[in-house]
Specification:
By secondary structure, the chain is of the alpha/beta class. Among the domains are: 46-69 and 244-267 and 282-293 and 347-424 and 449-484, no CATH class; 94-242, Rossmann fold (3-Layer(aba) Sandwich). Helix content is 44%, strand content 8%. The protein has helices spanning 10-21, 48-56, 61-68, 103-120, 141-144, 147-153, 173-178, 194-200, 202-208, 227-240, 245-259, 265-268, 271-280, 297-303, 310-325, 336-341, 349-359, 377-387, 394-397, 400-403, 410-422, 434-445, 455-463, 469-479, and strands spanning 76-78, 94-99, 123-125, 128-129, 160-161, 184-185, 210-213, 289-292, 367-370, 391-392, 426-429, 449-451, 505-507. The strands form three sheets. Strands 2, 3, 4, 5, 6 and 7 form a six-stranded parallel beta sheet that branches. The protein has a five-stranded parallel beta sheet with strand order 10-9-8-11-12. Strands 1-13 form a two-stranded antiparallel ribbon. It is globular.
């Protein structure tokens, strides 16, 4: 059921408030039953003056050429030193990891699991991917990643098996869910040291032949790790993890259609569409921008920011926070203005569109929208589409038959977006997060252009309701000069998955 709120009708407001006023009728709520809070018509544009100016402006050919220029070589290249094979003849036992989070958080945890197995001299069981409470996707490691390539790429570093031997087949997710088990390590500290694993996990593994860590995410330190272990992290992330063939094939098809719209003709079947593309597809021909638009209800609720939907929206998001996180994520103690000044509010489709327009992209730009369901639906996206009419996504680019294998699978959908984004000429993310971090690091590794929005600057600019378009554009260009792929060296406590230099790269 969808509830549409149309500017002040009492019936609409009451429908939205009903589950809040009468919570007993709606408790307990499953994730699926949250549809009562589905998107309603999005509010009017919040930056209509800037939007009007952006729609009237066109970018010169010279500026467009600069935009699409690949990054110059920055003195760093991929460099993962392969140590000589030093696998011991016998492992200490098996290590199981149960990984929570979404696809990109799980990706980083997989790489950490490889390193933990190395530290313990253990045989790693292909990690188990937990079902995320928000995305509700039961896809396994083997559904997403090429498991044979993963095992083969790391065969000289870590012993990896697809499943446990018969004698240990009792060690399952269901087994650990029913009672406290001595072979399970439940409270692994965040960013644990190598010594912690040797002191706390190795004895368990030696006693039972297996140790299971659940949950496992962000459980290995980035600091004071031997160089060979950091290199193994890099090898796992940048070399061992590749998507299954059907994800890569679909991703290649989408990239080809973005680069050459004529290849879409057999699917679209519209001469008008192709004529429109040929007229608008002028500058940056054959090139496209991948935009990761993380603006789903989960992100909107977690941020506690105001997105212009009025009291009904605030109440709906507050209820969503209560149901999904059960009090662990509270209403913010900061005002919306304070949150925006701190750069803590995800950019709406309208705001990311204005950023791109100010940087010089225009209505001839091919834009790939890498996104899960957008909060507010198509109505919320309409302003972005008005700025970039050649915007595409998985649904518009692929046929229903092509999408059949990934339909309803959030992790597989995210994998396609990741693959297409890695092959884009420019990548930009509308908000920091695991996809942003993983993509920034992966594209840094290959010296690809990536625009990192200056969230604090943007928050301040969008709060200024009197700012003219020329001043806005000047502030945007100036504030993003050094945020388009410049290599930043990894600092203490930072992730090598986001900042791969110098651990995963060498100079020269």
């Amino acid at each position: 059921m969808r509830v549409y709120h149309r500017g002040g009708t009492m019936a609409g407001c009451f429908l939205l408030l009903f589950p809040i006023l009468f919570p007993s009728l709606f408790t307990p709520l499953s994730h699926a039953s949250l549809s009562v809070f589905s998107e309603w018509n999005a509010p009017k544009p919040r930056h209509s003056r800037l939007l009007k100016s952006a729609l009237q402006c066109q970018t010169t050919s010279e500026k467009q050429s600069d935009l699409w220029m690949p990054l110059a070589y920055q003195g760093w290249k991929p460099c993962i030193e392969s140590a000589a094979s030093n696998l011991p003849e016998k492992s200490e036992g098996y290590i199981q990891m149960f990984l929570d989070g979404g696809l990109n958080q799980q990706r980083m945890a997989i790489c950490d699991a490889v390193v933990v197995a190395k530290i313990l001299n253990a045989t790693l069981v292909i990690p188990y991917l937990e079902v995320n409470p928000v995305w509700q996707d039961s896809s396994t490691f083997m559904d997403i990643f090429d498991v044979d390539h993963f095992i083969n790429a790391l065969k000289d570093d870590v012993a990896i098996v697809k499943e446990l031997p018969d004698g240990l087949s009792w060690s399952t997710r269901e087994y650990y869910a029913t009672a406290i088990r001595p072979s399970r390590i439940k409270r692994a500290p965040v960013h644990a040291s190598t010594n912690w694993y040797l002191d706390n996990v190795l004895p368990v593994m030696q006693s039972y032949g297996i140790a299971a860590i659940a949950p496992f995410s962000h459980r290995l330190t980035f600091d004071n790790l031997p160089k060979n272990l950091q290199h193994l992290r890099c090898k796992a992330n940048f070399q061992a993890l590749v998507f299954v063939p059907h994800i890569r094939h679909l991703g290649d098809a989408l990239v080809n259609r973005l680069r050459d719209p004529s290849t879409k003709s057999n699917m679209v079947g519209s001469s008008n569409y192709l004529r429109e593309v040929s007229e608008k597809y002028k500058q940056g021909a054959g090139k496209f921008v991948a935009l990761h638009l993380r603006f789903d209800k989960d992100m909107a609720a977690h941020s506690a920011c105001d997105f212009g939907g009025g009291k009904a929206e605030k109440l709906a998001l507050a209820k969503y926070r209560q149901v999904i996180w059960q009090g662990r994520v509270l209403n913010s103690q900061f005002t919306d203005e304070e949150l925006r000044n701190q750069g803590r509010c995800p950019l709406t489709p309208e705001e990311i569109g204005l950023l791109l327009a100010a940087l010089g992209f225009d209505n001839s730009t091919r834009l790939y929208l890498a996104s899960h369901k957008v909060y507010g639906g198509e109505a919320r996206i309409s302003t972005l589409r008005s700025l970039f009419p050649l915007m595409e996504d998985k649904k518009s680019l692929a046929s229903s038959d092509e999408r059949a294998l990934i339909k309803g699978k959030a992790s597989l959908l995210a994998a396609v977006d990741y693959y297409v984004s890695m092959h884009s000429d420019i990548f930009v993310s509308a908000s920091p997060g695991n996809m942003h971090n993983a993509m920034v690091g992966h594209r840094t590794y290959y010296n690809l252009k990536t625009i990192r929005p200056n969230m604090a600057l943007l928050g301040q600019l969008y709060l200024n309701k009197t700012l003219s378009w020329p001043d806005f554009r000047e502030a945007i260009v100036e504030g993003h000069k050094n945020r388009q792929g410049k290599i930043r060296l990894c600092k203490p406590k930072q992730s090598v998955y986001t900042y791969p230099a110098p651990d995963c790269m060498c100079q020269g």
